[in-house]
User: Fold this.
Amino acid sequence: MLRELAHEFAQDSIRPHAKHWDDANEFPMDVIAEAHGLGLTNLHVPEEYGGMGMGIADEVLVTEEFAWGDPGFSTAAYSNGLTAGPVITGGTEEQKIEYLGRLTSAPKIASYCVTEPAAGSDVASIESLAVRDGDHYILNGEKMFITGAGHADWFFVLAFTDKSAGYKGMSSFIVESAWDGVELGKKESNMGQRASDTRGVLFDDVHVPVENLIGGREGNGWFNAMKAFDLSRPNVAAQAVGTSRAAFEHALQYSDERETFGKKLHRHQAIQFMLADMKTKIEASRLLTWRTAWEADNGIRNTESAAHAKRFAADSCMEITTDAVQIFGGYGYSEEYPVARLMRAAKVLQIYEGSSQIQRMIIGREMTRDL
Assistant:
């Protein structure tokens, strides 16, 4: 029922606007608010804080349908999922009541601020610094490529409180967007997923109350940030599955409508084999996604399985959307047809929340951990 509701919503409220959002670089806040009203956002926020109290397995079902509707919308709508993660797993009771409550009581956006101009995959190279000054921390730093930043009510921010301790000296903070010293950069002009607002955020002598140190203690920022990825990467994999499925369905339909050399495209073995490979990759990607989501919900350490799902689903999505453009031929290269937009949208799935290369590093580390 949840999946059916999400699919109907994607069909009726997302797909009809997807091209406009992409062409106009428009953030779909009104439709995100509609999804919020239907209970399709903040799914894994516990009920005691106003959320739906569901699991990651429920969430990936909805995420796949959102991405089937439009990958950019899916990314924009899931910003809260990643950002709420460290608060759910590591926040104090007061922080959960206040900041998770903000997301569930109204259609608001929260953004995850880790990446910096000189620190993407190498998180340990961040330079943001928070210095204790009485009952506040003075936060300085610059974050980059932050999803939803232009519409965020609050940010999860990773910064050093003790740089000499390496990654164990990182702490995490909840920073409200309206505070003095928080400055937004320009919206990035991205290759794809243009419905998602992506920009830099500058923190210039921002006074962060001590009570906004996540978990109430220093030094747990790295672990909290990385733990959140085990919950969010299944959803990125689900985004890839939904995007792949959309591209495949468009290609399959076109191959039934278009005729060459006296027969429909899908009657040519060359095209039929391409479609068969696309379908296999979608099925495999979905099962990897469901497995890691199930592990997360059942208390099983899913770091490796999340990396498998995210890597395979994202790489497969790039291949599937590229093949969909190929099946459309010259029409596929035109922005008048949806497969071009889907191909542009697919690329970032191989990059954000840990690139495909980083996922391979995680898999390698995990499979040799006990050797």
About this structure: The longest strand covers residues 136-147. DSSP finds ten helices and nine strands in the chain. The radius of gyration is 21 Å.
